[in-house]
Amino acid sequence: MIAAPNRWPGPMAGSRWPIAVVLAMSVVHGSLLAWESWHDAPMWDEVAHLPAGLSHWQLGRFDLYRVNPPLVRMLAAAPVLMASPSTDWSAVQISPGNRSEFEVGRRFVTANGPRVFRLFAVARFACIPLSVGAGLLCFVWASELYGRFGGLIAATLWYCCPNALGYGHLITPDVGGAAFGLLASYCFWRWLSKPTFPRSAVAGAALSLALLAKSTWIIAFALWPCIWLGLT
């Protein structure tokens, strides 16, 4: 069994003020992403991602935008369903190599008119908790390794990262994939420290979410065994 690394032996290890600072940063970070969600026009690929996510819920199929896993866009599309958006699935093509999601997206924008900007904003709001949660997980993981001051540094690096600020509100799998991958890695680290069946189940479930968010996490099937073998 691999023992968990010791906490950073400094006075900040037991201090509580880093928790307050991190919570304040999470609120500011989420607020900035919410402002961007409302004021930024949809990105070119978001126009395809949102109707593709709606199609997964309404049609029960995963043909649209099948080059990426569906989890993030399904999360984004879930609150939009309650707004009863206009949809047009006549352009859906399921032949191999066909990328009809962009034509479906164009028709989705046309069908909803100016209202489409509010629909995209609502969908983006559903993605914000992924970026905020990733920053909190950075704090938790680094705190377990190096104390709360180390966790504060890790959370600051995430919340101030230009990529997190620029992409954290978008209906794309990038930040969502990073967030779920971070969760899976943390659960795997906890399993390494104490390899019990419940922890292995949690790590497996977290890895499943990461794979459903971003297909590049398939590397974990090779990376995790190598890490385990290297530490045993």
Overall description:
This protein has 232 residues and is an all-alpha fold. It has 11 helices and no strands. The protein is flat and about 55 Å long.
As residue ranges, the low-confidence spans are: 1-12
Counted beta strands: 0
Spatial extent as radius of gyration:
20 Å
| Content-based structural category | mainly alpha
* Mean pLDDT across all amino acids: 91
The percentage helix is 55-70%
What layout of secondary structure does this protein have?
Layout: H1 17-39, H2 46-59, H3 71-81, H4 101-112, H5 116-125, H6 128-146, H7 148-159, H8 162-167, H9 173-193, H10 197-213, H11 220-231
Please provide a brief summary of the model.
The chain is an all-alpha fold. Helices cover 68% and strands 0% of the residues. The model is unreliable at 1-12 (pLDDT under 50).
Descriptive terms for the model:
232 residues; mainly alpha; 11 helices; flat; disordered N terminus
